Each structure stands twice: as C-alpha cells, then as structure tokens.
Amino acid sequence: MALSIRYPRAAERAVRAAAAAAIACCAAASVAATPVSGDLAPVPTLEGHIADMAGVLSSDERISMERMLSDFEAQTGHQLAVLIVSELQGERIEDLSLRAAQIWHQDSPGWDNGILVTLSIGDRQVRIDIGKSMEKYINDSVATMIINEQMVPAFRHGAYAAGLHAGILRLMAEARHPHPR
Which of 40, 77, 115, 143 has the fewest CB within 10 Å, making it most exposed? Predict the structure, then answer.
C-alpha cells in the first residue's frame, strides 16, 4: 500500500484548491508513467532512519527525529524511515520510493513491518509506503489524512522539518494500535 500526493506552492493554492479534494480521493490511484531521463539517481545508504539528500533538516532537527524514530523502533519493533531528495530527475516518486524500500530491505530484514516516507522538495511530492505487516495499523485513508492534514500544510510554507515531524508523530501513533478491517 502506498500513497503519493503532489502538494502546491503557497502561490498556487487558490488555483489548486478545487483539485485538492480530488487529489485526496485519488491518492491511491496509479499515476501516469513519466519517462526517466538519463540515469536513475542512486539510492543513498540508510544510516539510521533518515536519508536527507536535499539537506533540508538542520543537525538538531535530524538528531531529534533520529532519536524519536529509534525510540519508536525499540518500543514497537516497527521501522520508520524517511528519504528526502531535492528532485526526482524525471523518475516517478513511486519508483524511487520502491527502489529505496527494496534496497534498504536487503540490509534490514523485516522491512515489511515498516513505513517509508519519501519527500521530493523540488517536485513538491510526498509519498508514504506501508509494509504489508503494517497494513493492519495504517490504511490508505489514514495515510492520506496524515499527508493532507499533518504534512502538506507545513510543506506549503517551506517548513519541511515541521511537516515531517507532525506526519511522523501521527504515523507512530497510528502504528501503535491495529485498526479493525
């Protein structure tokens, strides 16, 4: 299960306001393929829980989030990782996110018990991938709400750390309690 949402810049909000509801409803739908131009960007080595290739997090923000994610994993056994890139370079966010999950899964058995948040700053896109074992905790509608309510409002104002922090807190809260199907 995975969700991707492209979020607008503050200046584009009025133009895209009507489309926001449609985006939320169709977030799980497949996005048309975008041809990849040139080579694919390499997936970084995951050291800890955060790979910030765009350099948007300050040292203190990164340390705070890493501590929060490490504590969460120690308490629950669930893994939560964050990949931040400057741009997708023609690759779909779905493809980059899945490549990262596959590569990081090789180094971390049990990844199907995890969550991957992928954020592309320049492309204004965010995606949440949920491992199969996590689907009893977080479904498509919950992930869509987390993106739309916790993350995107902050991202629209360039507050990437605040949006990630809010989204991660909500993901962690949801991942502590299974939801009935």
Answer: 77
CA pair distance 146, 12, nearest whole angstrom: 21
Chain-centroid distance of CA 59 in Å reads 20
Helices (H) and strands (E) counted in the chain, each on its own, are 6, 5
b/e per residue, 122-149, with b = 16+ CB within 10 A?
ebbbbbbbbbeebeebbbeebbbebbbe
Domains of the chain: 2-30+47-174 (3.10.310.50)
53-112 pLDDT, tens digit per residue, is 999 999 999 999 999 999 999 999 999 999 999 999 999 999 999 999 888 876 555 557
What would you report as the CA-atom Rg of the chain, rounded to the nearest whole angstrom? 15
The CA distance from 134 to 113, in Å, is: 5
The 10s digit of each residue's pLDDT in 20-37 is 322 322 332 223 333 344
